[in-house]
Design brief:
The protein is an alpha/beta fold and about 180 residues long. It is built from seven helices and five strands; from the N terminus they run H-H-E-H-E-H-E-H-H-E-E-H. The N and C termini lie far apart (about 95 Å).
Length: about 180
Amino acid sequence: MDNEIKIKKEVPFKNYLLLILMIVAVVLITLYIFKFYKVKNEERLSESYLVKENLVSNKINNIQELKEVLNESPSKLVLYITYHNSSKIYKIEKELKDIFNQYNLTDIFYIFDITSIKDKVNDYADIIDETLDINVVDFPAIVYYEDGQIVSYKKINKVKDVKTFFEKNNIEKNSH
């Protein structure tokens, strides 16, 4: 046993340095991927899916525009009230694509984007309530006007709500 020689091999400093550099590189790449994903997700949610996909061309961005549209008193008007930067709402809107293709909505459907109001004013629900004469507290919501009067209002939780809303209010289906 006395003849055994213990060999102690030293790990060169450059191996430690390489290991540290590899760990730093992995951490930086991981952080970059997370940041990239976050920016892409924010970009995706920054606009309504319905507008982005050109399913809705009539977009209202402020209360004054809304008042002007409502004062014109079209014979039929479907007002979709929403905001962006919500993955839940984006998902609902994405699922609405098929329904929008089934119904003839081009002239009567308006989207009212309350994001700018919601971000600037704490009592935005009161302002919307005062303008529309309905108590909208949860979004997205859909309001149906006929001859300048509110006929129906519904909070949208899922796509089925919109389809039921359209059927209940006799919104015309596309003929093709």
